[in-house]
Amino acid sequence: MKTKAVPHPIPYQGSKRNLAADILRYFPAICHVDRAFAGSAAITIAAAVNEAGERYHINDLNKPLMDLWRAIIETPEVIAAQYESRGENSSRILAPFTI
């Protein structure tokens, strides 16, 4: 299976996003993708983009992380605006220190 590369909203060390294509090659034909330890959800996102299942479920004990995922899924425009605003604020704050 040739897989599509996918940008990630939560790129962090330990994420499987760089291994997702290799991992997906071993996926059986399934309807549901359930991830008990979602983390950055790299495998679930890659599975969804590459249509490796019909339904996807992520879970994690880290409540703030799951709250962020819920917001990304349910109100992506709000999260995108917050990230954009944060970037503008960071640029403004760092401007005096930029050569």
Overview of the molecule:
By secondary structure, the protein is mainly alpha-helical. It has two domains: about 10-60, no CATH class; about 60-99. It is about 45% helix and about 10% strand. It is built from four helices and two strands, in the order αβαβαα. It has a two-stranded parallel sheet with strand order 1-2. β1, α2 (about 40-50) and β2 (about 55-60) form a beta-alpha-beta unit. α3 crosses α4. The longest helix is centred in the C-terminal third of the chain and has 19 residues, at about 75-95. The radius of gyration is 16 Å and the shape is elongated. The termini are far apart. The mean pLDDT is about 80.
Structure in a nutshell:
With 99 residues, this protein is mainly alpha-helical.
Distinctive features:
two-stranded parallel ribbon; 4 helices; mainly alpha; 99 residues; 2 domains; elongated; single chain
Largest sheet: 2 strands, parallel
Shape descriptor: elongated
Fraction of residues in H or I helices: 40-55%
What count of domains describes the coordinates? 2
Find the count of extended strands (DSSP E, 2+ residues): 2
Question: How are strands sequenced across the largest beta sheet?
Answer: 1-2
Q: Please tell me the overall pLDDT.
A: 81
